[in-house]
Amino acid sequence: MRIYLSLPFKIMGLLMTLLLVASISLTYLWVGESNQNYAFQQKKLHDKDRQQVQLIRDMLRTRVESWFESFLHFQANYSQNAGDIASFMEREFEYLQFEWHINNLWLLGGEGKLYFSTSKSTPDYIYNDALKALKTQSSSSFIRCLDECQQLITMPVLTHAGDMLVLSIGSSLIETLAALNRSTFAKLAILSADSVFNKSENLVNLKVKMPISFSNQEYIQNILAQLPVELKISELLDGGYRFENEQGAYLLSLTAVDPELGNQTYFLFVRDISEQALAHRRYQNKVFFISISVVVLCSVTLILLSMQFRKRLLLLAAQLPLLAGKKYRQFRTFKFAKSHLFIDEIELLQDSACLLADELESMDRKIELNTRELENIAMYDRLTGLPNRNMLNHQLKKQLASLRRDSNKIVVMLLDFDKFRKINDTHGHKMGDSFLAQAARRIRGSLRDSDMLFRFGGDEFVMVFVEKAMMEGAPILAAKIIESLREPIAVEELLFYSSCSIGITSTNNADILVDDLVRQSDIAMYASKDSGGGQYSTFTNNMLTAVLRKVELENEVRNALDQSQFSFALQPQVNIDSGKLIGFEALLRWVHPQRGFIPPDEFIPLIESSENMLRIGYWGLKKTFEILQKLDELGHPGLKIAVNLSASQFLDPDLLPFLREQVRVFRRSPSQIELELTERTVVADIEHTLDTMRQLKDMGFIFSIDDFGTGYSSLSYLKQMPVDIIKIDRSFVSGMNDNSADMQIVSSTIAMVQNLGMKVVAEGIETSAQFKLLSQLKCEIGQGYFISRPIPERDLFLSLPYKLKSGVWDDLDKISKP
Q1: Which residue among 166, 217, 284, 646 has the highest number of C-beta atoms inside a 10 angstrom radius?
Q2: Where are the domains of the chain?
Q3: How many CA atoms lie within 13 A of 752 on its CB side?
Q4: How do residues 749-765 score in pLDDT, each as one tens digit?
Q5: Nearest to 61 by CA among 164, 179, 145, 212
Q6: Predicted structure pTM score
Q7: Residue 640's closest CA among 566, 729, 570?
Q8: Does domain 75-176 have CATH number 3.30.450.20?
Q9: Domain 384-539 adopts which CATH fold?
């Protein structure tokens, strides 16, 4: 979980952290520099002590050497020979002891002969120093500590007689220590070890050998007792050691008594640096105080400066969520405190927030208005003002949900106008929209207030109402609506007579899907249309089975085309007078691999308006060209084949290019192809039909009208069309011998068609009496079972040699004459 931390605190914390780090860093550098300076001053004191030791030694040595040289040089009667000098030394020794702190004197000759000595025994180093002095003819000075420490000065002496002697002078270090004390103001002592050791050993191995006074010895012993046991001699030799106790602060340093000899004896300097240490601590305390003060002062300043920004940011942070919640009135209750002199980023942000609030509020109002308008558009039809399909789905879901609580049933009725397209085609869509608006009002007038009316789309309307489970009011209401719509509808001084088809379905099952319920009413409505229109039908499962069968059949037709299950059966057409074979009518046949032969009347109506019908139509045209080519190859040229064109294929824009391509590929005369059209196809779109027929006629194709007399075609249309053949329907031919009405129809049709310059084909001739009567009525061409049943394509080419005799079909030449 993330923790909230205010922005000013973040900034202040970051700045204070940076300030603290900078302050600590500077303080550390400052204190470090101070400690370095402090240590450097101590090192300078340590080095100064060494220099003072050497300076005072050299000074005392020079003074002693000068006195003796002066004395021996000016007192000639005392320096004639070694004996005179020895006598002088003996006589003046007490004076030298008192004034010059001379402890011992030795006078030696060139061969190491001892002429004079104040000591009971002469150490070996006296003889060694004398030999070096004679050899180098220069003086030397060493400090040696045996029982006590003394400075030994060895100098060559030349007598007036020209003899070279060596004078060794041993003086006490008291004068040296006194001079060091006066010059350094340090407590002094001489420390020495009992045995040989190195500089890395601890200081406790050294003992006080010669303090400058007894009080000084106690002081030195006290200091040495408080030093750390692990303190090394080398530390004191290199830079000294700073030591603090309750009495004060001290600087201890060691200097070798005689560095040239490398002996184990050292001068110990103990300086009281309490004042310097106190001053150093005060200085560091000031540094810490200044650093802390700066941090505290800057922190307080940052806090005071950020408080105002923090208040404004908190105010802004409290306001902005109100914008997200669209609480504009509460947003405006907050008041901003603005500066009179300066404008900063927060004030700009606050002003922007106010502008944003105004824009958002205005936008929300517009969105709310647009949302309402979109809801109306989404849920209501703009033309009729009725609820649309979306609202239908919404209401049906609500009604279905209520079935779980009530024992009612929902009734859905779907209404569709019959031949509404004619209104759009002849008067335009604007007139059609006005018709629908008027019709919607009339339908609404037939419903109760509790009934719901929806525009489903196009010229389809849906009515929904709830009734008791045992009531059957839907058929009564449907009949009432159908009857009301039979009355003409006035639109702009025009009267439109129309009819409608209604499909009814009902359910008391709350689990049924909305789409299924609407689909059932749609299926029932199409059942009404298929029954002639102007009526209502109630949905049954048989209707659904028929629809499913149609879908299944469409899929099977598609597979049948891919698997070459379709073929033609060809029924001969002959000249009635001569019996001569003129051609064939190609009849479609489907042999299913499982269900066997399927009659065209079973599947053609189901696929008539589908894409499969187009595919079958183009397959049939190409097949016709192939059959004609085969007949020519077998020696039967000039025959023609009549093939039916469906309405969808005849209106297809690809028909003309397809036929041109087939004529080019097969090199057939288009006059051998008779394109059969039904009256329904001809009047579907008369202008387009006439244009297409003229173009095909110009290409050489011939036309025939099939089932003439069963439709509602106008003779004026027939006169305009480039039709070559009229085919009389079998229903009139079969009854003309027994029914005078049918006889008059056939006779009148033959006379009328021949007067128009067309030929007549009589279909369905099943008896010789029908054949002879048609011959008497001057009918040119006939076909039917009496002449020949349809012959499968695969059998036609084998049977032609047996059926044709000099071009006459079978034995018709014997009965063709009355």
Answers
A1: 166
A2: 75-176, 186-272, 324-376, 384-539, 559-808
A3: 15
A4: 888 888 888 899 999 99
A5: 179
A6: 0.47
A7: 570
A8: yes
A9: Alpha-Beta Plaits (3.30.70)
